[in-house]
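Progress note, sequence design subtask.
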C-alpha cells in the first residue's frame, strides 16, 4: 500500500512563508517524478511544481520566482513557499509518479490559507 503524507500547511499572512513536506511509504518501484498540485474552492486542480529524478524542475506560472521544490531523496520532497498571496490559498496535494507501473499516487492534501 503506497501512501503519501503531506505536512506543513497552515494559516499565514500575506507575504509570509510556509514549507510543505511530502513523504512516500510503501512499495513503489521507481519514483521518477514528484510534484505538488493545488486546488482552490470552485477551481480545477493545477500544477504548482514538479521535480524529476534528475533534479529538473518545472513550475506553474503563478508561483515562479516565489516557490521552490526540492527532494531530500527519492521518497521525500519539499515545497518552500515565499511571498505568499491570498490567491495561493488552496489544498495542496503531493503526487508521486511510478515510472515502471506508469501510475500516479496522491496524498490526502494539506490546507494552506493566506490571509490578506
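Output:
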Amino acid at each position: 500500500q503506497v501512501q503519501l503524507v503531506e505536512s506543513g500547511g497552515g494559516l499565514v499572512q500575506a507575504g509570509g512563508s510556509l514549507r510543505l513536506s511530502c513523504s512516500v511509504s510503501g512499495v513503489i518501484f521507481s519514483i521518477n517524478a514528484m510534484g505538488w498540485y493545488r486546488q482552490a474552492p470552485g477551481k480545477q486542480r493545477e500544477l504548482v511544481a514538479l521535480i524529476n529524478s534528475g533534479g529538473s524542475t518545472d513550475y506553474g506560472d503563478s508561483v515562479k520566482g516565489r516557490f521552490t521544490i526540492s527532494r531530500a531523496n527519492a521518497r521525500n520532497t519539499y515545497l518552500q513557499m515565499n511571498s505568499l498571496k491570498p490567491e495561493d490559498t488552496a489544498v495542496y496535494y503531493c503526487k508521486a509518479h511510478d515510472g515502471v507501473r506508469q501510475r500516479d499516487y496522491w496524498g490526502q492534501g494539506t490546507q494552506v490559507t493566506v490571509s490578506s
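The mean pLDDT is 95. Work on this subtask will continue into the next period as scheduled.
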